[in-house]
Every structure is written in structure tokens, then in C-alpha cells.
Amino acid sequence: MSQDDMHRMAFKEEAAELLGELEDSLLALEDQPEDQDLINRVFRAMHTIKGSGAMFGFDDIAAFTHEVETVFDKVRNGLFAVTKPLLDLTLAARDHIKSLLEVSDALDADDEVIQTRGRDILCRLRQLSPTAEPEPVREAVEPASELPRGKATYRIRFRPGPDFYTTGNNPLHLLEDLFALGIVRSYPHTEDIPCLEDIDPESCHVWWDIILGAQVDQGQVQDVFVFVEDECAQLSIEMIDSGSAAADGGVYKKLGEILVERGDLTPEDLAQALASQKRLGALLTESGVVPGPTVEAALVEQDAVRDIRKAREPAAETAASIRVAADKLDNLVDLVGELVIVQAQIKQVVSGSADAVLKTLSEHLERLSDDLRDSTLGIRMLPIGTTFNKYRRLVRDLSAELGKQIDLVTSGEETELDKTVIERLGDPLVHLLRNSIDHGVETPEERLAAGKPARGTVRLTAEHSGGAVVIRIADDGRGLEAQAIRAKAVERGLVSPEAELTEKELYNLIFLPGFSTARAITSVSGRGVGMDVVKRGIESLRGAVEIDSVPGQGTEITVRLPLTLAIIDGLQVQTGQEFFVAPLSIVEECVDLPRTDRLDGDRIVNLRGEIVPYIRLRDFFSIDGRPPDVEQVVVSCVEGSRVGIVVDRVIGEHQTVIKSLGRIYRDVEGLSGATIKGDGTMALILDVPGLLRAAVQS
Amino acid sequence: MSKTIMTVDDSASVRQMVGFTLKKEGYSIIEASDGKDALGKLKGTVHMVITDLNMPNMDGIELIKNIRSQAAYKFIPIVMLTTESQAAKKQEGKTAGATGWIVKPFTPEQLLAVVKKVLR
Questions:
Q1: Contact A526, A437 (CB under 8 A)
Q2: Number of H helices and number of E strands within chain A?
Q3: CB contacts, 8 Å: A230 with chain B
Q4: What distance in Å separates residue B53's CA from the closest CA in chain A?
């Protein structure tokens, strides 16, 4: 049953009840024709049938009942007495309403017999009460006047009365409604606000002069104020510019003309003021002819109209976005990065000085450079949705090729990511989607046999989560078989047969190089080069990938990516005279490593009972010198396992602007870039997963 | 937290339609069948009242006056349901403190438009 049907049903039940009440009241009136209470009851029953009937599409009932109600309204107001003929007719009318109700759903709703009877009753009612002019139940809705073609400009003076709030209205809501219509310039008049001890917080003291530029007609502007027309001390809405091309040319009115038009200034005063040679606004204010705020409000109008006209020009629209070569943008980010570094240096120098002026300036500079950094990085952000569309095609083509029926459902298209990240994310995502389609979702026959709908679904979603973007690819396919993965991993020698692994750890084995459980190699995937490439691709973006699965219900792959590649939060450490930065996102904790705790042969540290292997940077990068007595371990989490990096000293957190190392150093293992520190010296950025891989290999 | 709207009407079908429409938009609803019933149920946080005017026991005008006299509800939006033949009633309602009105018959869309206009 549709909502409409549901409401119609409710109305019919209600109307039947009301008609019963109506009959009782009418019969009772026969004995006590003067009883005002009974008359009211009759009127109310009619009124409700009319009102509710019209609500739910019983127009004929509403129209008919309206006329009977009109008669009883007069009776109620004592214009007309209850008589026997009136009661007879009303009872007949009541029966007519009943039959209208009964046939309302039948095909013969327009039954001529019923129609005639209705007209007859109404006719006799009108004879009884000659003044009962047939009124239309509803005023015909006036066709909306044609919209102005361009943006029309309106001048609105909105001056709420002091009791404005007592009707539950809120002037700010009305202003918001205006803002929703188009370009708004408002000038709030606060000059009437009394001083604090005199203020009555329950009355409204502010009023507004508003200029609205919008593609709406005057009626639509008036609609905004429809509930408050009587609550305003002054409310005027005038169209001052129709938006037609003819009105566009030339300069907008002068200040004096605006003030005269608004009625704030008489033409005589204007002429007198113009006679002297000063600026008009200042002059009028000084001489006290027009109060200062009023002049300002008029100047706002001048400005607003200029802006609205400008917005009309098509050229302005195309300028809303400009295309810039990507390398110009990269260059800008580089420069901003260097600026941030210099700013950090200045801050460091100034923090040692007692000069208050210098300190203030440095703080200003910091704020500015932070804003500049944020908005520059913002320029590089693109919504990820632009790439989602191309996957739709991929899913369609692939599923057709494999004889599967798969829908791709996407959400979070508006999530923004650094342009470089989006570009380099394409290949890994294609791999993951192919895997879901090929290995995850079953054929329609298999799905039906498993009690699932024949059409499978692959969901691709993106969302912000803290400082990262999370992309999920979830299918409702067969899920992963943990034991098959285990068997395969053992067979390939990737894990030892005795290894105790949780299900999740088992699932994540598929990211190891040379792993594929597909029974047959298809042209789509299954060559065993997929998932480890995906993982490396995502890690090169300083992201992480995880997989989870419920057998029979599907698989979900979660990719976590940093918002930007240009600036990271880093942890600065020192070994010998060298400085390094580790991305803070993978750092779990820092602990001391006293000489006595070292088991140098094994390169493991005992961390509260847990055995954690470590890499010593001093050894890895062959740094000269003796390590201090107490070294420090940066414990980080890489690929699901914890690993320590031993350094001489942990310095602290540091906003790190990443600089590339250039071509020659691109392949150095364990390093992903460099940064310039606050004092102008350089620090290398550690590529912790790479460091680990290199250490394991050696 | 969802906002609470009290709907007052002696017509059960109108109450059903109004309640149904608003609940679907996530509002919490308190229903009352006339002014007296409404005043009895008016306690705690009520963000808005939608009331019919013509009701037994206590009509809408009386109800609006009563609501406005309570400090907690002095400034909440109150919208009245009127018929076009009640222009004088509409004025009376505004004087009593109604925020706005909806003319019967109305559609769910018109109802929501008015609710969104006055309740934010």
C-alpha cells in the first residue's frame, strides 16, 4: 500500500466516524435547536471532513462539504436559525457525503445520479440561505510569472519590529533563505542597539539593508518574508535592476541617487551637499543630514550591484577555474616548502631573543606561512571520484568477459587526495578490482546455489579518516579460504608448516611475492604478480594495505593513504653527526637501549617481554664513531610486525617538507628523500619498509 | 539529536499524514488531539508546534496563547494549519504568537518546506 493509499484509508475511517457523530448531533439539534455546543459540533465535523478530504484528494467531498459548512458557520455566528428544513437538508447532505465516500474508489465515481443529487442539495441550501454565495474551495493558483532571464537585483530593507522574536521567527533564518537565492550583500544597522544596561534581550534591535542579486522574481523574494510581513517595522522589496541586457551598460547609480531613491535624503539636501567639492558620503555624514551607517549601507549597494553585474558576464564564469601546468604547481609547492623551512629558522633564532616586536613579527610570519602551505597543498587536491568513473567501465567489460553479473557501487567520490597520489593509485586499484571480480565474485549459477542474488556487488568507497584517506574495495563474493592460502604458502616455502598464524595474518600472506591460489590462470589475473605489486605500489605512496574476509560472504581490502606526499609529520633522530627523519605515521614508541640489554649477536631487543628485532642505523649506513652508552630504539610497525631502529638520539617531532634526492640517489635503499632542518642543515628521510627489506636480504 | 515537533489536530488522518511525513525526515513527534491534550503533553524539550485552529475542548488560538505564556516555549516556532476561508483566524493566530501558517489542503512537500523554513 502506498503512502497515499494509507492516508486515504485513514481519512475514510475518520470520515465515517465523523459522519456518525454528525448524524447524532443533527438529530439532537432537532430537539434543542438553540444548543450552541451542538451547533459547534456540527460545524467542526463538517470542517474536518472538508479540510482533511481536500488533503487526501477527495476534492468532490471537500467542495460539497465546504458549502454546507459555510451555512453552518452562519448558524454558529447567529446569523441564521436552525430550522426543520435546514436540518432535513443537512441530513440529506450528510448522506450524500457518505455516498460520495463510498463511491470514491469505484470506477463510477462520476456517477451522474450522485452528481445530480449533490447539485440539488446545494441548490436548495442556497435558497434557504440566499447570501450563501458559492465560493471556490481553493483559489486558482496563479501561474508563476516568467523568471527574469538574467539576475535581477533587489533592494530590501528589512526592519524587524521590537516584538519580532515573540512570534518564534528568527531574522537570521530569513537572511539565510536570501543567501540561498543568490548573491547577497547585507548591511546590518547596529546603531539602534542600546548600551548594555538598557538592552532588552527579548526584543530585536538590529535591522538590515540588503542587496540581492538572484534569478528569481519579486514574488519569490516576498515569499521569504511571508510569515513576518506584519512583524516588521519596515519591509520593502524593490527591483532596482531587472537584469536585462539593456540595463547593463554603464556605471551604476551614484551615491546621492541611491540615497534619494531609498528615501534617506531629499533631493534639495542632495543639491546643497553637491554644491561643495568634498566627497559626498563624508559631507553628508559630517553635516548630519544622513547618519553614517545609512551612507555606508548605500555604498554597499553600489558595490553589490557592481559585483552582481560582473557575475552576469559569461567571461567571469569561465574564469572560475583555470588550468595550470602541473610542474608550475610542483614548483610552487617546492617554494612554499622552502619558505616554511626559512620561517622555522627565523622562529628558532627569534625564540632566543628578547625583542617583543621581532617575536610578534615572527608569529605573524608563522601564521601566514602555515596558511600559505595549507592553501598551496589544497590546490593540488583533487576529488578521487574522477578516477572512479573509469573503473565502472572496467567492471562492466571484465564481468561480461567472465560471464558474471557485477554492479560497481561507489561512494565518497568527493574525497580529496593529492594529485600525485591519485595518479599513482590507478594501477594498484585496477589490480585490486580485477582480483575482486575474477577471484571474489562467483558466477551467477554458483551464487544462486549459495543462496545469494545472481548479481554480485563490488563496492568502491573512499573516506577521510584522521590525517589519511581510506579506500575500501569490498565484494560480496566467496571470500578467502584461509586453509588454502596456508597450504599454498607452505608449499611455496613462504611460511614454515609449524607457524601459528591468525586468519588475518593468513589472508595477508597473499601480498607476498609469488603467491597465487587461483586454480586456473586467466587473462585477467592469477599470474601471481598481482598482490605484491599492489602492496609495493601503495607503500611507495607511504600507504598501507590490509585484507579481511568472511568465507562465503566476501572480501574487503582496505587501502590507507596519506593526504599528501609533499609534507609529512616526521620524527627526527640523530646517529653520529647524521640526522634522519622517520615518518611519524609508522612510529609506535621510542625506548632506551642500555648497553647491558643488548644481545648484539641476535640483534633483538626485549620490549616488555616481547622480542623485537632491530636494525642499527650506525651499522646499516656505516657511520663512523662510537655509539653512546645508552642508545635509543624507534619501534615502528612495518607490514604487521614490529621492528626497532636503533639510533643515538631521538630529537623530536618535526613538520617535514619532502625534497626528492634526485636521479643519482633514487635507488639508494632505505632512503626515500631528504629535508632541510630548521637550522638549514639537511636530514635524510628513512624509508622504513625499504630499510627492512634491504636488511633482511643482506 | 533529532528535533521534537508536537502536532495538534483533531483529525486523525491529518495527524497521521503530518506525523508520518515528519518522522520520515527524522523528527521526533508528539501527537495531541486538541489544545487541552497538547498542553498536558507539552513538557521537556519541544522544538516546534504544528497546530490546527478549529478543535474541540481548546482551539488553536487559545493553545498558542497558552504555549507562549510559558517561558520555555516563548520563542519556539508555532505553525498553524488553516483553511483559506479563515483569513481572520490567521490574523488572530498571528496576534496570539503564531510563527507562520500552512493552508489546508497541503502536500507533504509543502509541510516540510514550512518546517524547514522556521525550524533550524
A1: no
A2: 22, 21
A3: 94
A4: 11
Chain A residues within 8 A of B117 when measuring between CB atoms: 173, 177, 227
Q: Which helix (H) or strand (E) holds A101?
A: helix A84-103
Q: What is the percent of chain B where pLDDT is above 90?
A: 46
Residue in B5, B9, B13 to test binding to A, most A beta-carbons within 10 Å: B13
Give the span between the Cα atoms of A616 and A605, in whole angstroms: 12
Q: Where are the alpha helices (DSSP H) in A380-465?
A: 385-402, 419-435, 444-449
Separation of alpha carbons A480 and A364, rounded Å: 56
Alpha-carbon span A480 to A209, nearest angstrom: 66
Q: Give the CA radius of gyration of chain B.
A: 13
Q: Report percent pLDDT > 90 for chain A.
A: 3
Share of chain A above pLDDT 70, in %: 87
Q: Chain B partners of A14 at a C-beta cutoff of 8 Å?
A: 11-13
What ipTM does this complex have? Answer: 0.88
- DSSP, res A659: B
- Cell triple for A85: 428544513
Cα–Cα distance for residue pair A517/A504, rounded to 1 Å: 16
- A465 min Cα distance to partner chain B (Å): 23
Other C-beta atoms lying within 10 Å of the C-beta of residue A553: 14
- Asked if A644 and A633 touch (Cβ cutoff 8 Å), the reply is yes
pLDDT at A247 (0 to 100): 47
Cβ distance of A168 and B14 shorter than 8 Å: no
* CA-CA-CA-CA torsion sign (B39, B40, B46, B52): negative
State the cell numbers at A631.
642508545
Using CA atoms, how far residue A476 sits from A517, A521, A552, in Å, is: 19, 22, 8
pTM listed for this prediction: 0.48
CA atoms of B32 and A74, how far apart (whole Å): 29
Subunit contact A166:B74, Cβ cutoff 8 A: yes
A341: Cβ contacts below 8 Å, ≥ 6 apart: A657, A676, A677, A678, A680
- Whether residue B49 contacts residue A43, with contact meaning beta carbons closer than 8 Å, is answered with no
What is the rounded CA–CA span in Å between residue A46 and residue A70? 9
C-alpha cell at B16: 497521521
Give yes or no for B13 touching A (CB within 8 A): yes
The mean predicted confidence, pLDDT, of chain A is: 79
* Angstrom distance (rounded) from CA A543 to CA A402: 31
B75 chain-A contacts, CB cut-off 8 A:
165-166, 168
Task: Please state, in angstroms and rounded to a whole number, the distance separating the CA atoms of residues A155 and A186.
Answer: 10
Q: How far is CA A255 from CA A106, A242, A282, A294, in A?
A: 68, 20, 11, 11
Taking an 8 Å cut-off on Cβ atoms, the answer to whether A55 and B56 are in contact is: no
Residues of B in contact with A168 (CB under 8 A): 75-78, 97-99, 118
Cell of A319: 574564469
CB pairs under 8 A between A and B: 94
